[in-house]
Structure formats: structure tokens, C-alpha cells
């Protein structure tokens, strides 16, 4: 088996292997790394998944991208250790399920990606005797997932930028109560501002000596683990191999990219529903073929999806033969009809999100939080339009206890705090506040030399 190489969506010609792409984060030309090919899993392999555990399925999906870069037993151990929690499928009604991706240590689906990426980075850095600073921007959940995944590691420091006013108190506390090698920065601004600051730091020649790497969903180490739970969910709801509809609440589109990679690797998928909140730049592109970022992004209650220009669209376009640079300029249109064949895009307003949370609770006694509600509402729209007969899975990407105020108001239920978040409200916080200028960030980063 020849080792899969990764190319940059901006067209730079150098190819790197998985290790190179993981440690660099972003390609030198500011593009995102994409695998040159998608290894396909045979139908026989996929037919065995219903008998396999989550980490065993993860091994089959991820191993082909790593080749011999990681020893087999080391990879098995990492996967077992990273995926030590439950991944429940909750039945809502006939053949319609929620995939609960909220049982990890920070109670959002970001744990799936961050925990494996953290372990892989540590493996490669140890091998080379290197150390590194992870610089990452978060709209709410990435920061805590990454912070927990790297917490306490000696050769890695983590600096997290979050928009001061756009994360809930519990989301903030998950980042700010760790200390040690974790450095949270509360930035005056929005998620897009945080992301822009991070991107600028990466290409700043004066910071080259810092060994900065990203842990955003732009890192391939985040992307590949997100293909696994689609295979897992499929194996549980369609063990006979039928096609499944997946609805994916989307912000930066890393989660959906994971699904599309699963599809390219042979997973039987009927349709992906890409459900956004009122930041509807992607659904509008799917309708009109014209891409316009939303600047500034809108503040919706599904705060981890308040993204006005999703980084992963560069990958999505590349997957369908197009090319988009990091600013959202489209150099080559993707094959829109192929995209429409595989993806149904829909935007859900805050009002509909709230209505969905109320109705899911009153009709089915299912407690959704705002992100999962966007996904579920998207699925309901799709089913209304195309019929209700395929098995369908809607991703619930966070625990309702992360958004207690909204849930109490809408359902009267105070979501119980999962064990992973117990005592969070009492712990001491440590973080710095920072204005949104690049000069301030750069000054701060220079302190790490
Ligand atoms: C990050 C996040 C999303 C969006 O995922 P993308 O990969 O950015 O599209 C959805 N829900 C929750 C809870 C998140 O934290």
C-alpha cells in the first residue's frame, strides 16, 4: 500500500504525508491539506462493522491514511484510550435517530477529533524530540476539547482565543479552569476575528521560531476522526447496509467534511443534510451558485456555528473539483449538480431552532440543545420534502447542560449536569483579556520565545 499524500487546496505543489500535514496544520500557501485519494473500504469490511466496537471501526477508517507512520499497536492503544466513552444512538421515532456525540470529557463532538489529534501529535513530537505551541481559535467548543486533549502534556502548550461575549459561561469555564500548559485569551470580537488573528500569526515570519501549529478544524488531524462516527452510526442503524440520511448541524463544515470523506470511502449514504443557523452562506451558494461570506457573522443561539465564512468550504469545493482560497474567493466553481446530488443544504432560524427544542421535548421527550436542534429541524425539512422511508441519523453535537438558560426557558427542564462537568461552576478561572488587534496578539506570543 503506498502512503497517501496530502495536497494544499490553494494549489501549492508540494505534497506531504499525514505526519507533515498534522504537524504543520495549514499548508505554506495558506491552503488546507486534503488527501490525494480516499482509500475505499470494501463492502465486506463495512458489513463487519455492526460486530465491531467504536475504536475497532476507527482503526479500519484511519489506518489507511497513516500507513506505517504509526505502529499498529500504538494506534490501537491511542484509539482505545481516546474513545473510552459511550456513543449512544437515541431513537426518536421509527428509524429516526439522534447520534449523541456529547459524552466525551468536554461534552461536545469536538472531543472525537481533539482527543485523537492530541495523541497523534504527542506520538510524532516525542519521536522527534520536538515541542510545539498549539494556537487555536474557538467559537465555543473547540477550545475546551483541545485544551482537555492536551492538558498536562510537557512538550505542548495550548493558546486558545475565544470571543469574549459569544461563549456561554460553562463553555468558558471548561477552558479557563485548567491552568498549567493551557493559556486562554478572551478576545474583544467575534469568532471570525479570532480565526483571522490565528491565521495571521501562522504566516508571520517573525514568529517562525515558535513552532506554532493549529488545532482548528483546518487540521487534518481533526478531520479524519470525524469520518469514523458516520461509519459507526451506519453500522448500528442500518446493519443490513441500507443507505442512511445524515443531518449535520454545520458551522465551519469540518463535521460535514468528515461525513463526505466517509461517503468517498464507500459508506452507503442517501443524502447529507447540511443544516446551518442564520449564517446561511452555504445554503445560499447551493441555491444560487454565488458564494458570499457573511461579514460580520450573525449571533445565533447555536453559537458554535456562528461562522460567516467556513474554512472547510475550501476542502468541500476541492472535493467537487472547485477551488476556493482562504478569503472565500472562488478561483474555480465546483460541480454544483454533483454537490446537490449528495448534499441538501438548509438554513434554520433561531425562531425555528427554539420551536424545534420545544416540540422535540413535548412530542418525543427528547432534549435537544440549539446545535442539535438545527440538525433535527434540517432533517425534518428534508423528510417533509423527500419522504420518510430511509433510516436517518441527526447529529446531536453537544450536551444540553452547556446551554442551560435557553433549555430551561423553552422546556422548563433544567438539563442535569453530566459527570464530566460536575463542579465546573465552582472552580477558579484563569485567563487574559485582549483587544482584537493583531499587534496585541503578536506581543503576547513573543513572550513565549
Ligand atoms: C463546532 C460545533 C458545531 C459545528 O461543527 P463544524 O465542524 O464547525 O461544522 C456544531 N455543534 C457544536 C456543538 C459544535 O461545537
UniProtKB/TrEMBL annotation:
Protein name per the record: Threonine synthase
Residue intervals passing through the bilayer: none
Stored SUPFAM superfamilies: Tryptophan synthase beta subunit-like PLP-dependent enzymes
Entries under Gene3D superfamilies matching the protein: 3.40.50.1100, Threonine synthase, N-terminal domain
UniProt entry keywords in alphabetical sequence: Lyase, Pyridoxal phosphate
Residues modified as N6-(pyridoxal phosphate)lysine: 110
Enzyme class: lyase
Cited NCBIfam families: thrC (TIGR00260)
Family: Belongs to the threonine synthase family.
One Pfam family matching this protein: Thr_synth_N
Amino acid at each position: 500500500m503506498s502512503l497517501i499524500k496530502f495536497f494544499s487546496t490553494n494549489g501549492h505543489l508540494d505534497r506531504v504525508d499525514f505526519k507533515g500535514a498534522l504537524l504543520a496544520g495549514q499548508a505554506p500557501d495558506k491552503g488546507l491539506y486534503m488527501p490525494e485519494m480516499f482509500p475505499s473500504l470494501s463492502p465486506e469490511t463495512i458489513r463487519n462493522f455492526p460486530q465491531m466496537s467504536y475504536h475497532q471501526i476507527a482503526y479500519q477508517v484511519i489506518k489507511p491514511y497513516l500507513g506505517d507512520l504509526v505502529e499498529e499497536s500504538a494506534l490501537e492503544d491511542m484509539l482505545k484510550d481516546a474513545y473510552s466513552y459511550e456513543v449512544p444512538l437515541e431513537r426518536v421515532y421509527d428509524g429516526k435517530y439522534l447520534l449523541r456525540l456529547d459524552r466525551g470529557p468536554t461534552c461536545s463532538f469536538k472531543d472525537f477529533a481533539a482527543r485523537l489529534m492530541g495523541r497523534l501529535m504527542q506520538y510524532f513530537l516525542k519521536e522527534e524530540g520536538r515541542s510545539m505551541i498549539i494556537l487555536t481559535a474557538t467559537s465555543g467548543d473547540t477550545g475546551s476539547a483541545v485544551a482537555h486533549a492536551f492538558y498536562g502534556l510537557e512538550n505542548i502548550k495550548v493558546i486558545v482565543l475565544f470571543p469574549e461575549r459569544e461563549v456561554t459561561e460553562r463553555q468558558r469555564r471548561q477552558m479557563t479552569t485548567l491552568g498549567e500548559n493551557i493559556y486562554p485569551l478572551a478576545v474583544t470580537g467575534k469568532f471570525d476575528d479570532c480565526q483571522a488573528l490565528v491565521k495571521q500569526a501562522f504566516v508571520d515570519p517573525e514568529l517562525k521560531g515558535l513552532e506554532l501549529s493549529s488545532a482548528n478544524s483546518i487540521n487534518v488531524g481533526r478531520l479524519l476522526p470525524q469520518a469514523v462516527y458516520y461509519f459507526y452510526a451506519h453500522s448500528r442503524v442500518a446493519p443490513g447496509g441500507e443507505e442512511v440520511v445524515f443531518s449535520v448541524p454545520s458551522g465551519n463544515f469540518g463535521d460535514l467534511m468528515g461525513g463526505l470523506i466517509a461517503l468517498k470511502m464507500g459508506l452507503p449514504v442517501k443524502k447529507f443534510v447540511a443544516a446551518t443557523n442564520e449564517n446561511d452562506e452555504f445554503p445560499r451558494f447551493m441555491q444560487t451558485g454565488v458564494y458570499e461570506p457573511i461579514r460580520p457573522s450573525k449571533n445565533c443561539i447555536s453559537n458554535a456555528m456562528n461562522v460567516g465564512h467556513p474554512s472547510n468550504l475550501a476542502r468541500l469545493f476541492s472535493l467537487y473539483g472547485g477551488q476556493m482560497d482562504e478569503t472565500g474567493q472562488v478561483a474555480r466553481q465546483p460541480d454544483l449538480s454533483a454537490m446537490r446530488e449528495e448534499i441538501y443544504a438548509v438554513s434554520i432560524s433561531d425562531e425555528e431552532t427554539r420551536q424545534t427544542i420545544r416540540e422535540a421535548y413535548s412530542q418525543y421527550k427528547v432534549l435537544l440543545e440549539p446545535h442539535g436542534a438545527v440538525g433535527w429541524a434540517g432533517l425534518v425539512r428534508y423528510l417533509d420534502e423527500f419522504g420518510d422511508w430511509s433510516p436517518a441519523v441527526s447529529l446531536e453535537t453537544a450536551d444540553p447542560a452547556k446551554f442551560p438558560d435557553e433549555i430551561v426557558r423553552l422546556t422548563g427542564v433544567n438539563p442535569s449536569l453530566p459527570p464530566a462537568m460536575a463542579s465546573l461552576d465552582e472552580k477558579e478561572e484563569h485567563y487574559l483579556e485582549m483587544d482584537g488587534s493583531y499587534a496585541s496578539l503578536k506581543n503576547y506570543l513573543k513572550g513565549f520565545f
